[in-house]
């Protein structure tokens, strides 16, 4: 049963000005913002995306060390998507009929190009598992934990009265 879009992290709501006290989870875990190091296995495209998004997420105070795997999954999926799009573009240049979206098997049957599907499925599964453990910002809004003492350096602490 789907109940709508995933909730946004409270810190993001505060920054955007859409936070409403009546809808806030008072027991949302508070993890100190931090810049995680990128895993060694990231592709060059994924590393470029890692730098781009971590700069922005850190500036907003959203990303934490615990988000490393979920962020790596996103970046690797982005990198694979970029690689797949380039490969599909090259195939499209040679295939005027299906633009590379269909391929022929050795038996001569036309099938959908599986280039992107395998990588997307693996990354979607990884993100789903990360969310189950509360390792994404949106998942933390649904976790009820003991409220910890506020961090005086927390950019959103003034909004929580802590």
Automatic annotation (TrEMBL):
Signal peptide: none annotated. It comes from the Bacteria. Residues 16-27, 37-46 have a biased composition (Basic and acidic residues). It holds the Pfam family Terminase_4. Residues 1-46 are annotated as: Disordered. This is Phage terminase small subunit P27 family. It comes from Roseinatronobacter domitianus.
């Amino acid at each position: 049963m789907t109940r709508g879009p995933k909730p946004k992290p409270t810190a993001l709501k505060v920054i955007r000005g859409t936070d409403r006290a009546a809808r806030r989870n008072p027991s949302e875990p508070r993890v100190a913002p931090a810049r995680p190091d990128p895993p060694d296995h990231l592709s060059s495209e994924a590393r470029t995306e890692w730098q781009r998004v971590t700069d922005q997420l850190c500036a907003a105070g959203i990303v934490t060390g615990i988000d490393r795997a979920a962020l790596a999954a996103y970046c690797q999926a982005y990198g694979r998507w970029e690689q797949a799009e380039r490969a599909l573009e090259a195939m499209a240049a040679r295939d005027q009929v299906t633009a590379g979206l269909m391929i022929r098997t050795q038996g001569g049957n036309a099938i959908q190009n599986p280039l992107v599907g395998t990588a997307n499925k693996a990354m979607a599964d990884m993100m789903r598992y990360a969310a189950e453990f509360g390792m994404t910002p949106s998942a933390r809004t649904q976790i009820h934990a003991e409220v910890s003492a506020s961090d005086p350096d927390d950019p959103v602490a003034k909004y929580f009265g802590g």
